Every structure is written in structure tokens, then in C-alpha cells.
Amino acid sequence: MASQNKDERAYVNALIKAIRKNSPRVYVYIDRDAGFVRHTSSGFDFLLADMGRVVFCEAKVGNGKLSAWQGFVKTDVTASGTPYLVVRFWDGGTCFTVENGPRIDVDKARIIDFVGPRKIRACEN
């Protein structure tokens, strides 16, 4: 499990780097307190904000499930009318999906993949 958590963090870092490169005006908050200490966990891995649009994101490797706490946070966040998306990494972290949508190459990640109409951009790997 520790290896998967380490991989997930590396994948999130690469994704955030790509989003910042491809959509430079985006504000990104990464929850570095996430982990074993559940009472201090926010219940999400990163938050994206762009032009008044905000989305909470939880990262998973493959088919990983939300914890009970993450499920609670997702319910609470979405009840406020704010999106909470599960981002899944595939193929060794080279591709990701948003809410089980089409696979997107990490290097091509943009804010539109999270807050707007999702365009199908196939993973090149």
C-alpha cells in the first residue's frame, strides 16, 4: 500500500505540473495532509480553481475505492453544488480519467478536462 500511495503522489505531482503548464492561470491547492491521519484529512487530494469555477479532486490509482471519509466529503461538497471528481491514473501514471471518462495523456492535461466540456483526447501510449 505504501508504494501505491507514493506512486499516487508522484502521479498527482506530474498532473498538476502539466495543468499549470497547459493552463497557466489555474490556481491549484494540493492537500499535503492527506494520508493516515484521517481526522486532519480534507477528504480530497487537490483543488483546482479557474475564473470562479472550483473543483475538488480525489486521485486514485486504477480502480481504487473512496474511503468512507472521502465518500462523506464528496457528498458534502456536491451538496453545495460544487464538483468533486475522482481522477484515476492508468498505464503507470501516463494517462488519467476524470469520473471514468476517456483516457487523457497526463502531459496534455488542462483545466477544461475538469471544469468544462470534456473533449476526447486519446492517450498516446
Polypeptide structure, described:
The structure is a single chain. The chain is of the alpha+beta class. The longest helix is centred in the first third of the chain and has 21 residues, at 2-22. A hairpin with a 4-residue loop joins strand 4 and strand 5. 30% of the residues lie in helices and 25% in strands. It has helices at residues 2-22, 68-79, 112-115, and strands at residues 27-30, 46-50, 53-61, 84-90, 95-98, 104-105. It has a 6-stranded mixed beta sheet.
What is the fold's blueprint, element by element?
Layout: H1 2-22, E1 27-30, E2 46-50, E3 53-61, H2 68-79, E4 84-90, E5 95-98, E6 104-105, H3 112-115
Parallel strand pairs: 3-4
Antiparallel strand pairs: 1-2, 2-3, 4-5, 5-6
Computed CA radius of gyration, to the nearest angstrom: 14 Å
The largest sheet has its strands arranged as 1-2-3-4-5-6
Query: Which CATH architecture?
Result: 3-Layer(aba) Sandwich
Unreliable stretches: 118-125
Tell me the CATH topology: Trna Endonuclease, Chain: A, domain 1
Instruction: Give the biggest sheet.
Output: 6 strands, mixed
Topology pattern, helix = H, strand = E: HEEEHEEEH
**Oligomer type:** single chain
Number of helices: 3
Tally of strands: 6
What's the level 1 CATH class? Alpha Beta
Structural class: alpha+beta
Proportion in β-strands: 15-25%
| Terminus-to-terminus distance | 26 Å
Helix content: 25-40%
Mean pLDDT: 86
Number of structurally distinct domains: 1
Shape: globular
